[in-house]
TrEMBL record:
Residues 31-75, 81-133 form the LysM domain. It comes from the Bacteria. One of its GO terms (molecular function) is metalloendopeptidase activity. It comes from Aerophobetes bacterium. This is M23 family metallopeptidase. Pfam families: LysM, Peptidase_M23. Residues 39-55 form the HTH cro/C1-type domain.
């Protein structure tokens, strides 16, 4: 009898104190969303990749119930897969692959969804990092532009022969002179005859710098590209073009130095989110900026 009582007491202790603590460590904590002014259930559902009906059901809301600022909503856990980051993969490319976003605004929303699911404060990721992709049903192969692999795949013979060509030597010298105009994610690449430059996504107001010494050749407004700035670099005999900018920091005729702030990133013209459309031209002919940037 005493043994039975002791056994019951032990089971009571395990059930009351130990098992709940053990289970709490094994079961994922629920995710919450604090309602802000302007939020709707539809917008919140798109933000987390769950349906409006699932949010209503989890929070015991009827179709007539309204949400209000400061309200805490439980967000139902969704399934997903883990994706291991490989070389040259970025959050932008990963989000586009898994969710199939078409417009820059859609892809940006999907990037933010992955960042929230993984507790990331910035879109910077590392090779080997494992990312949870909410809502995904299988691991997918993320396509990387061939331009990024071309240098690594070139053998010693190819490198040696390219160094012997005068145009390649000239290009190498120019590369050593130039710097990137802004830090950000390339969201569209140069396509000869189709797209004359590259688009670099960056925060609105980010500083754009001159990639080399030069002179402000032109500033003005273009219907598709918004506020535009063009520099001429005499030493390299190149024109560099900056579009969708929000603020000019230099004016026509100004002399600029490499690394000097010349403008700020914006969303003027026909774009969905802040970015810099950047072109390099030899005379009037556009060339691939990635061939000239370091």
């Amino acid at each position: 009898m005493k043994r039975k009582i002791c056994l019951l007491f032990v089971l009571f202790i395990l059930n009351a104190f130990i098992f709940p603590g053990y289970l709490a460590g094994c079961i994922a904590s629920p995710k919450y969303h604090i309602v802000r002014r302007g939020d709707t259930l539809y917008r919140i559902s798109k933000l987390y990749g769950v349906s409006v009906e699932e949010i209503r059901k989890r929070n015991h809301l009827s179709p007539d119930d309204k949400i209000y600022p400061g309200q805490r909503l439980i967000i139902p856990q969704v399934g997903g897969v883990y994706h291991q980051v490989k070389e040259h993969q970025t959050l932008w490319r990963i989000a586009k692959t898994y969710y199939g976003g078409v417009t820059a605004e859609e892809i940006k929303r999907d990037v933010e969804k992955i960042m929230r699911a993984n507790g990331l404060s910035s879109p910077e990721i590392k090779v080997g990092q494992k990312l949870f992709i909410p809502g995904a049903t299988k691991v997918m192969e993320v396509e990387v532009p061939s331009e990024l692999w071309s240098k690594e795949e070139a053998g010693p013979d190819e490198v040696e022969s390219s160094q012997e060509r005068p145009e390649e030597k000239e290009l190498a010298e120019i590369k050593s002179d130039l710097c990137w105009p802004v830090k950000g994610e390339i969201i569209r690449y140069f396509e000869k005859g189709k797209f004359n430059g590259i688009d670099i996504a960056a925060p609105e107001g980010a500083t754009i710098v001159a990639p080399a010494d030069g002179e402000v050749y032109w500033e003005g407004l273009l219907s598709t590209y918004g506020r535009t700035l063009i520099l001429y670099h005499k030493k390299e005999d190149l024109y560099t073009c900056y579009m969708h900018i929000s603020v000019y920091l230099v004016r026509k005729g100004d002399q600029v130095k490499k690394g000097q702030p010349i403008a700020r990133v914006g969303a003027t013209g026909n774009v969905d989110l802040p970015c810099l459309h950047f072109e390099i031209r030899k005379g009037i002919d556009p060339v691939n900026p990635l061939d000239y940037l370091p």
